[in-house]
Queue: 2 jobs
Job 1
Amino acid sequence: MYRAPIEEIAFTLKQVCGLGDIQASERHADLGDDLVEAILNEAGRFAAEEIAPMNVVGDRKGTIFADGKVKAAPGWRDLYHNWIEGGWNGLTATPDYGGQGLPMMLSAAALEMWNSGSMAFALGPTLTIGAVEALEKHASDALKETYLAKLISGEWMGTMNLTEPQAGSDLNALTAKAERAEDGSYRISGQKIFITYGEHDLTDNIIHLVLARLPDAPAGTRGISLFLVPKFLVNADGSLGAHNDVRCAGVEHKLGIHASPTCTMVFGDEGGATGYLIGEENRGLACMFTMMNNARLAVGIQGLGIAERAYQEALSYALERKQGRAPGDSGPAMSPIARHPDIKRNLLAMKTRAQAARVLCFACAHAIDMSHIAETEEDRKFWSERAGLLTPLAKALPTDFGVEAASIGVQIHGGMGFIEETGAAQYLRDARIAPIYEGTNGIQAIDLVTRKLPLSGGEHIKAFLGELAGIIEGVAASNLPELGDMAIHLTEALRDLEEATAWIMTAQAEGRMADALAGATPYLRLAGLTFAGVLLAKGAAASDDGHKAARDQRILLARTYTFTLLKEVAGLKADVTGSSEVILAFDPEALAS
Amino acid sequence: MYRAPIEEIAFTLKQVCGLGDIQASERHADLGDDLVEAILNEAGRFAAEEIAPMNVVGDRKGTIFADGKVKAAPGWRDLYHNWIEGGWNGLTATPDYGGQGLPMMLSAAALEMWNSGSMAFALGPTLTIGAVEALEKHASDALKETYLAKLISGEWMGTMNLTEPQAGSDLNALTAKAERAEDGSYRISGQKIFITYGEHDLTDNIIHLVLARLPDAPAGTRGISLFLVPKFLVNADGSLGAHNDVRCAGVEHKLGIHASPTCTMVFGDEGGATGYLIGEENRGLACMFTMMNNARLAVGIQGLGIAERAYQEALSYALERKQGRAPGDSGPAMSPIARHPDIKRNLLAMKTRAQAARVLCFACAHAIDMSHIAETEEDRKFWSERAGLLTPLAKALPTDFGVEAASIGVQIHGGMGFIEETGAAQYLRDARIAPIYEGTNGIQAIDLVTRKLPLSGGEHIKAFLGELAGIIEGVAASNLPELGDMAIHLTEALRDLEEATAWIMTAQAEGRMADALAGATPYLRLAGLTFAGVLLAKGAAASDDGHKAARDQRILLARTYTFTLLKEVAGLKADVTGSSEVILAFDPEALAS
């Protein structure tokens, strides 16, 4: 069972992550609190009542591949159609083609709940929305006319085709081919792997966005173009025509997200699939980045959704399961394990991770929205940089938290957690992909260190750290005794973050790139833990909106956080600034010989 | 592929964990270095050549349950019989019944390799050996005569039947019944769950050790007796008689260790299974603890085995897989990912965990051996207490490390890590049970805090901490420049461990048991991390035995450890000493209402 945490989500959007800034903009002038609440409530209801019960079915039945076709798990086609009939697919898409034009923050909140319902389900539309964004921004009007409305409604789904066997993280190595045809279209050929929802029977057509190289393209990533390749060609009247020269050659047998078909796609076996250029030739990577950046946030939200769902299930189990006698309990009866201090610790470890993931994801969504509504070039630049800075934090830390929370959830279940019938293990299996896809968390860390810290000549991160200090000052100035020493703990953590940041930036400035890269992963965790801690404290210091129990709970979580996750920070700083010499001295190739 | 790390194992046994103390004893006077080496080499060969290749078969095929019978995975019966023909089952068992009487340290070393080969395989004999230990120590001569030789040779396997649906960690709640029969035997009835290797076709007979209550037994754990219940009754001449009144009602569908059948066992459906009392009536728990303590170390070794195997596979993948260009590499070719600093960090994170797990497990085995060979009552007490202190550390930390290392291994594989064909995911699935069974790691932490810290009125832990300080002094006195500041880092960690220990013991002394319990889990990790760090430093400071490359590698690992895992210690101390108030204030039951 899943209960959508509407109150926490709404509070985090409004009081912690700045939804008010978005509501105050001209573009979202219609988005009153009532509408926000109505949307959250209805999304929460759908996630809890419709999606959540189908999660286990999707896991056990998975998808079935035969003769190039993929059959969705039982009930999943109906689920998907109910979902798109609710208008959920086009939440952020342009109203010009039937979308609702809502801000990313609301979409992030809904996406959390879809993922709590079922990560394998929420994943498909995430890809479609990525395709919508790429088309909105880069496609010709003709392509938009033909494809956009149906992708926005969800009548058709979209995919992203980047990976090839030899080209995963390194798109330089990409070899899929595109040749110009006489009619202005292209003939696409090549094999793509790990294509999420590459083939299925949820929709009548599937719109593949495919990276490929023209024959005369420069080497490397500057020679990659993006093409739209529909499964079925579309006639002038919008009806479906012939099957394109693309087929699914198989689906992977995966650790988790069994209901999400991960396909090997073969393009051009019979001479070349018909594709249409999106944007300009050889500029495909820029288009793809449009999809990828938001997709990274969307994957972060998967970690959030799993952490919350796993927490709820573990809590429910811990309240029912009785073993031993907790301190303070008397009489012959066994205590619910939720009363044992160690189980309380574990439950809090899960819940603090869920809430920390939430503030990170919503803060990133806020920055993306701000970059969209910015009215000056300066503001646009600032918020684009902020979104850029927060994206690796919002992708990596929440996905790590998702795995950690799910694993703690298994532990709380004891032996039952290892039995698949319980469902606890599914969260761990599903969650494990999120730190990997859309750029491994190691690549997020490299992105943070090599591309984001240097933004505006290092001034952006400096300003960001200054803002955190300001929030901490505000928490301290609130003088609330119930917060304890929270501001002191945060000030220490921020100092560690400042020192680690200076160390990494100095290494880069001095050309010691390998030193900076060796510390990238602990640096990312350190930065994300500190930022999340500051936001949790901001929420704890906020007024109670008349709901004291909820506020007490927020304070308890924020205080727990300062004694647990935040306490990793000092060690991470020591690691960033101390370990590069030994790490770089490690020579794995010498071991192999 | 698995390559047994014989040199590291031998070095750790001898130079770090004190195998020489055991070899110097009268009981093991025959155990020269040559024999040790021969045993390790042959065990390593069997693990690498015979067991390791069957691991994936066991995972994919699992066991098949039908009509109360369990069929092992293809090839597993032959594998088991080859293994027992090598005499491996009786390594530590008494020579009186065909065992080899070798010390636990050697058995631990071999068990690491069996588990690296296949955790699901190594698990079965672990249970048999537990049964052997219980019989050796507590059974009547008649029972020994009938059962011991065949359990020691491995011709029959043994099981442990504790858990019932309502009684997992809490044996007070156990309800299986035993009634006295006229012939001196007993009639056993009740249902047991999660019985590892409870039914299978590897051996012709299976010897169940079953906890049950007599009708007139006192309530609680003082009313539990231990019975031997053979699957087939044994005739006076040793041949097999009638099928006993015990059957397997099903096997669990688990996250991992698919080749290990986890059975629901039903005793006495047809009037009562014939059982024979082991030890005294109502004293079954003491007998069971004999099995459980060594089983806890054996489970810790599972974590070690998985960490080492997962590391080797990830290393091998990272050397083959090419993506991007590592710092310092030039030319158009992609670099093996093993050259990227972040991957080096991840490989080291796995390897430091494997080596830290190894020193913890072997040190615990050493203490057990010392308690067996002790010649004075005082020594016996000291080493029994030391084994007691180290057992929760050797169970919990290595099993957590196993999960952590396997998860990092999945990450190093990128998208391929999530695909079951790669095998990386199996290590994670298999490893995940080890922190749960034989007493969850939370229960280990409670055991450490409530039973082990108070040993000898708190003097034992005090002496232990003093010994650690002595080893660190030795490392510092070695004055080896290549060790860097290792002794300083360790001294800081030890101070944190001392402070955390004092905090917990004070809480207990003042009757604030809930405070102590709230910090038990981070305290265990803190203690284990510090102890392992000290032992790794001891190894790093030791001479190179003429093999410089191996010594350089040990120093690199120990130095990496001091900047990474050891740096968790300060945060853990802050957690232990700071978080209990907020953790105990958490009221999960209020959330449910």
Job 2
Amino acid sequence: MSGHEPRRADGEPPNDPHGAGSGQGRSVPARILRSLLHAFGDPRVDVVLWNGERILSPDKTPVATLRIADSRTLLRLCTDPDIQFGEAYSDGRIQVDGDFEQMLEEFYRGADASGSVAMARRVVHRLHRKRANTLQGSRANIHHHYDIGNEFYSLWLGSTMAYTCAYYPTPQASLDEAQLAKMDHVCRKLRLQPGQHVVEAGCGWGALALHMAQHYGVRVTAFNISREQIAYARRRAQAAGIGDRVRYVEEDYRNIEGSYDAFVSVGMLEHVGIENYPALGELINRCLKPDGLGLIHSIGRNRWKPMNRWIDRRIFPGANPPSLKQMMDLFEGCRFSVLDVENLRLHYACTLRHWHALYEQSKDRVAQMFDERFVRMWRLYLLGSIAAFTTGEMQLFQVVFSPGRNNQIPWTRDDLYQPRSSAVPVVETREER
Amino acid sequence: MSGHEPRRADGEPPNDPHGAGSGQGRSVPARILRSLLHAFGDPRVDVVLWNGERILSPDKTPVATLRIADSRTLLRLCTDPDIQFGEAYSDGRIQVDGDFEQMLEEFYRGADASGSVAMARRVVHRLHRKRANTLQGSRANIHHHYDIGNEFYSLWLGSTMAYTCAYYPTPQASLDEAQLAKMDHVCRKLRLQPGQHVVEAGCGWGALALHMAQHYGVRVTAFNISREQIAYARRRAQAAGIGDRVRYVEEDYRNIEGSYDAFVSVGMLEHVGIENYPALGELINRCLKPDGLGLIHSIGRNRWKPMNRWIDRRIFPGANPPSLKQMMDLFEGCRFSVLDVENLRLHYACTLRHWHALYEQSKDRVAQMFDERFVRMWRLYLLGSIAAFTTGEMQLFQVVFSPGRNNQIPWTRDDLYQPRSSAVPVVETREER
């Protein structure tokens, strides 16, 4: 089918789109493509088909040109665009020239405004079975994403290896500065005091736990079910000489025991599953002291919708960012008091742009480690995520809470925005930044 | 029945409770009272019955002594304590000596922990019909509370006449300082710029609208259905010489029209009714510009429960503080993005303590204006509200939000906590503080 000849019903040359009849190809594939683009709100992209036929952006200021390699790819896009765009781009059956990030924004904005795309997604979502976030399912889901190799992530996450939204004091801050500022922001929101004991659920490569112990003088017990991450985190704590102050536990958060002054979880809730929020709330209620504070940092939504299915299939199985309303299921059951919510959506776009820039610098190494398909897959994921945060498709919520009876809560938020009284690290360590 | 003699089954004197048998009266009324107190978690109160019989606090450190005038009052308390305590206190059939505020806290904490009280309340709530917050119902509900006389409120609200939670930079701030700080906090959260047009839903006696116009150089259109409040607000704006910059409209918020840079509502949502949140969200969506910001300040709950029925009957008909989860119905329908939530619960306890102190100073005047019953009724309301905020029964949420596509949102919250660049009022006025 790739040699398909476009129809020329009106005799105009298909490759001269600025001719008569709004200058767009009139072939069957061209018409199919136009109706597909229309369902996505007529994004400002030009499309070039396998036969050279061009379908131009309606407003003549395209942000990118999309090249489709064959008719089969087009047909697949029609049946299931969410999955098939990602698959075709990964395979190289779709090429993108121009501003890929902005093109994805156009598609997000358009799909968001389009009733037909939303309805199709709802139907498909019901047909689609996910691996549940049971103890076993979570382990498989997390292994899929986080255990593909510490070296891979170290190529583009910056020196902190923090794989969550950073906090940019200004949009000009560097990635590492912003990750450190995020850790400080979290520690300050928790009003950590030397000697306290913190429990962390989902600790990634261990950067936050390390930072808390080093700079706030607390003990940390940090949980994670990713074996590779835990091994990396332990080595890092040993190297920093604070192995005795930070304990990394390879266990599911559901097995947390003990009594703590603070509970923190940065970037885990997205993987917990909304149906498990009441149980997570009860767990926190058991392990947080009556005068303790908690902080949950999670990707979220303004209104819930299912996760993009290609991301779910290829990148993040089982992820499900909640709306704030859904997140409240975690707090209301045990009558936690929500003290502070901050939305850092645009900081995540900024973080992802830094990750993407580093990723592109390392793409040859990534290709060696995996293959070209993998390189393209992760590029689409990073750029698509930027677009999701820029368009408001996704949010980033930091929520501070406490047991409902705690009257030792912060009086105002003034203290978060004053210079720290001590610039000296609370614990001297051997680690360099 | 008020001459009822206590039984002395064991022969001990009823007025010597420190005697044998844990020293408590053994009469039928005493036993009834003890089981009632037990349902409220055995609060630290002594009770003296009409016949002089004393029922002592179990832990011997009572915070107050409650005197019950007759057996009928006790029986009524048993059938419907939420309503009947308020009624009996208002009538003087219950007297309280000692720390009334702390005693109410004891009852709140105890009832909260008691399953039997919660269940009884749920049953009673279903039987109880409220006046719905239709256009007509709201007008009646609001008239009941706010139109009982500007002079009455001016006795104890302080010079701003702001009848909502203040913001105390420190717990030592005065009421007027804290009310002005609250207005600044709200204006700064909305990032008001000179020349902008703000719409306010539920403007009370007009203090915030006035403050915005005077100190932030904006125009304000402010809505309220309380006739007395609107008349007062207009006089105040005229006196301040900014009648041309603030327009007070005696209309229901549902009739707001136009297009505004900012939407603000301080202390109205409690009266809107949870069933009306989606419609309020749509209204805000219609009237807020795409790059606008909104702020809603409302009493709330950690988890929803019905309003105290005595407060609903005597003080605030139709009020219904939402949980954050319920509040999200306002934002999710139109995909508003929640940017910032701050919980100022303890600031409301502080505000109410200041109001109560001024109220007690003016109680003779209040008795002249109304009667002793009214004096006692409002005392109970103010002290009960302090207890509700101190015990975590009620919360105070300030929520900042924007249309979901707005990328002109504040980058961080730093600016809220820096000294204002201009200490000079934007508009010079004739009004004195």
